[in-house]
Amino acid sequence: MVYTTIYDSPFGKIYMNSDGEYLTGLWFAGSKDNLKHIIGADKDDLPVFEDTHLWLDIYFAGGIPDFIPDIKLEEITPFRQEVIDIMMKIPYGKTITYGDIAKEIASRRGIEKMSARAVGAAVGSNPICIIIPCHRVIGSGGNLTGYGGGIQNKIALLKLEGNDMNNFVLPTRK
Fold first, then answer.
1. Is 162 part of a structural domain of the chain?
2. Residue 87 covered by a domain
3. What share of the chain is helix, strand, coil (3-state, %, to 5)?
4. Mean pLDDT for the chain overall
5. Where are the alpha helices (DSSP H) in the chain?
6. What is the tens place of the pLDDT at every residue in 130-146?
7. pLDDT value at position 36?
8. Does residue 173 register a pLDDT over 70?
């Protein structure tokens, strides 16, 4: 069974999914990430939802939560897990490029190179935004690209974390 609740963030509604025990999804309402999730039965009082609400309250107040709600990533490949493990180590207020992650994985595996595009696909498959900080992954040259939660939310999250937005190249509409 899938359960869903909504968190009202400063940047709009955020949906949460749970299997009843673990957080299995976290995404901005109205974003491309909607396509990755189903809306389950309304349920606000699950302990994991309460923990996630608290985590988000601390985060959106400008704090750094000292815990992670219980999460479960379903149907995840070893490569995607490797990318998520790297994302989880990106410090608050810092960013890393898709290419940096690719280099780190190549080094770990003892291979010459790894595709930054493959890393981008793995980052894009992240079902739990913010807590697994895919918003901290940027394109080469500081390009702010590739956020399923919406580029405006990526920018807002990076600003919230105190990043100097002059260090980034904002996308232009064509």
1. yes
2. yes
3. 40, 15, 45
4. 93
5. 47-60, 78-87, 98-109, 116-124, 151-160
6. 999 999 999 999 999 87
7. 76
8. no
Measured distance CA(27)–CA(69) in Å, rounded? 15
How many other C-beta atoms are found inside a 10 Å radius of the C-beta of residue 160? 18
- With 80 as the cut, is the pLDDT of residue 171 above it? no
Quick check: is 129 catalytic? no
Please name the residues in contact with 112: beta carbons below 8 A apart, sequence gap of 6 or more. 106
- Contact present, 84 and 123 (Cβ < 8 Å): no
Q: Are residues 82 and 162 in the same domain?
A: yes
Which one of 87, 134, 138, 158 is the catalytic residue?
Answer: 134
Q: Is 1 helix (H, G, I), strand (E, B) or coil?
A: coil
**What type of residue sits at position 128?**
I
> What does the alpha-carbon distance between residue 98 and residue 118 come to, in Å, rounded to a whole number?
9
- What CA dihedral angle connects 112, 79, 39 and 11, to 10 degrees? -40
